[in-house]
Write a structure and sequence with these properties.
The protein is an alpha/beta fold and about 250 residues long. The protein is built from five helices and 14 strands. α5 links the parallel β9 and β10.
Amino acid sequence: PDPGTLASVLTEGVKNTIGDSRVKVTYEPEYVPAVPPAMPDIPPEQLAGMIKATVKVEVLDGNIAYLKIQHIIGEEMAQKVGPLLLEYIWDKVLPTSAMILDFRSAVSGELSGIPYIVSYYTDSEPLIHIDSVYDRPSDITTELWSMPTLLGKRYGTSKPLMILTSKNTLGVAEDVAYCLKNLKRATIVGENTAGGTVKIDKIKVGDTDFYVSVPVAKSINPITGKSWEIDGVAPHVEVPAEDALET
């Protein structure tokens, strides 16, 4: 009699059958598919304000930059608000001698943001094959490469970089952490990440208010030949998420 209970029973059944915790059945009578706002409609100052709300910037004792990121923006938005980002975030952290990227509450992001972030911590030459993403609906594999030119200066390859993770770190942030870990560019501190996916689709079941959430793309790292999905990214230094910054 209760659709919500049926949805959770179905979800458990699916998980036990295929062993993939990302596949979920939900009952959502009010669900409306999210439509991303058209980029040109929002003035850059307002976009920058939105970004500032999801990024925290500090310079800690010992000249260590601290960047807390909740959402990884895509290339299109980065191009649009680039100068404001440089002024608000990047110019503050460039002179530091080490950096901490806090991804403990990073749960969303754009695929095109992956090469953007990774490139700031690598050299301009030679270009590096960072990731390959296979998209099942289109049957297309997209290779992500480091970028030869960026807005502003690179942080470079010699200064220490730490990435803080939690069991809630999800999706695109996991990809960034996994890439930088396997390029041996970052030390991961915290908890094993969620093991999400780069792309999930919500599919309506017939003429009902039930939906199935299914991963429709897969990330394959060129260095390991494996994916961080399902298993998550294992930290170098495993500590409870709330102790990661202090550690």
